[in-house]
Write a structure and sequence with these properties.
By secondary structure, the protein is α+β, with helices and mostly antiparallel strands. It folds into three domains: about 5-215; about 335-400; about 405-568, Heat Shock Protein 90 (2-Layer Sandwich), CATH 3.30.565.10. Helices cover about 75% and strands about 10% of the residues. It has 13 helices and seven strands. It has helices at about 5-55, 55-70, 75-105, 115-135, 145-230, 245-360, 370-400, 410-420, 420-425, 445-460, 500, 520-530, 555-565, and strands at about 405-410, 430-435, 440-445, 470-480, 485-490, 535-540, 545-555. A five-stranded mixed β-sheet has the order 2-4-5-7-6. Helix 2 packs parallel to helix 4 (about 115-135), helix 7 (about 370-400) packs parallel to helix 12 and helix 10 (about 445-460) runs antiparallel to helix 12. The radius of gyration is 82 Å and the shape is rod-shaped. The mean pLDDT is about 85. The protein binds adenosine-5'-diphosphate. Adenosine-5'-diphosphate binds near residues 493, 510, 518 and 521.
Amino acid sequence: MSVNARILLLALVAIGITAILAGNSLFGTRKGRQIRERVVASQEQLLAVARLKAGVWPFLNTLSRMKENGQDTVAFLHERENQVLAEQTQLDLSVDEEERISGDSGYKPRTDERREFSEVIQALLRWMEKTEARVRAEPAKRPIPPMLEWELYQDYEREVGRDMATIEAAEQEELTWLRQHWDRNVKRSLLLTHIVTLACTVLMVALTLFLFLPLRGSLRQLRSVAERVGRGDFAVSLPTMGRDELGLLAQAMNRMAVELHGTLEEKQRLMKAEAEVSEREARRYNAILEETVRARTTELEAANTRLEESLRQLQDTQAQLLFADRLAAVGRLAAGVGHEINNPLSYILSNLRFIQRELDRPEAAGLPEKEELMTAIGDAREGADRVRIIVQELKVLSRPDELTLGPVDLGSVIRGAASIATQELSERARLVLDCQDVPPVQGNGPRLGQVMLNLIVNAAHSIEPGRVEENEVRVVVHMGILDTVIVEVHDTGCGIPPENLERIFEPFFTTKPVGMGTGLGLSVCRTIVVAMGGTLQVVTSEVGRGSIFRITLPTGIAAAASLQGNPS
Ligand code: ADP
């Protein structure tokens, strides 16, 4: 049943119930009013009868007094008759009223009531006339004998009073019946009202439950589904609820859920596609970014390497500059000392040579101290030679700028130095030459030979004699950056303690025993290399594991470029 039909049915039932209640109330009220009117009419009749009865003795007494006083009793009779007739009219009217009410309600008056009233009133009128006549007939100005009064009253009782009492009793009985009937009617009406009200209430409640309980269940289902849809759960389906409005609503809900589900899926699909596109774009940008970063990193690394190299060169240069002052002082001292020593040393040597030559002549063969003299002279020459070498080296230190530079083939220079050092190396280590093809460097061949010989001999001296196969002196040559050539001398010798690393390039610093080293080798080597526009440094040195010395020299191209960049 549709909701409209349910509401219509409920309204109809409510209207019906209201009509029944109203009808019941109307009927009860009407019935009550009729009975009340009947009661009132009956009471009026009783009152009229009572008034008639009550007027009998006063009539008799008044007549007696009037006769006694000599007054006109006839006039009084007429007056009283009119009053009685008025009462009759009143009684007739009340009987008319009774009959009118009886016609609608069925509460009929007693049969011949009108006739009874009429007869008793006629009888009363007759008694009154007869009584007045009797009283009038009595002698005037004398009181009426009580006996007569009694007789007249007895006549009244006989001719009128008995019938009047009967009528009064009948009226009283009717009134009692009417009152009882009225009570019964009120009770019945009340009962009926209660029963009808209760029945209507029960019917309404039952009908409401019958009509709206299923409606409530369906509405609950609809509400829960609407809430789930509201929370985004579109996997809902309402059971078929018939073809009423709720059924249509359920179908509409199901359709809405399906459409929303479809829309949501479409939206999710679009969002996913959008996310994929964004991710692809992000990946692409990422790849570009990574590539850019990689390229920039490579560039930065290269720049960094160049910077590190430049820094190292700068540090070397700075160290050399710091050292330059001391070297300059040493150089000036060396120049002075060399100049001063050189002359005496020349003639010490020439005189020693002369003495040696003279002693070697046959004429001196007989001299007994000849052998001793020859030994002393040999020692003196050796000492003087060492002084000469030192002086030469001091000259290099004092005037490094005097080197003449030109293209030098490093390979042949290294091979030459290696062959000279063979003697020193033979008992200590294997010599390995690892030379790549490099362009000629800008330098001075003999001086570079001196540098290489010095480094190889130092490497050999760092290795204890005796374990040739376990030790190695390796000379490596390869290209460096910015058109430079790098020469490295690796050894597996004793290494240099950290505290000495700062000092090994100082002139006269040596750890070798007296007579073995002058301490001038490395400082002379660095002076020569720097004079050629290169650098000499210790790459690494670890005590007990060995050292690596590195020379960096400019090629002819680099030297030409630096000359172009700095023509002065
Ligand atoms: P000299 O060789 O006359 O001592 P150098 O100037 O050539 O003078 O060397 C100075 C010092 O540097 C050496 O006494 C030695 O202690 C150290 N030295 C040089 N080269 C090496 C090397 N390859 N291994 C270990 N120490 C070395």
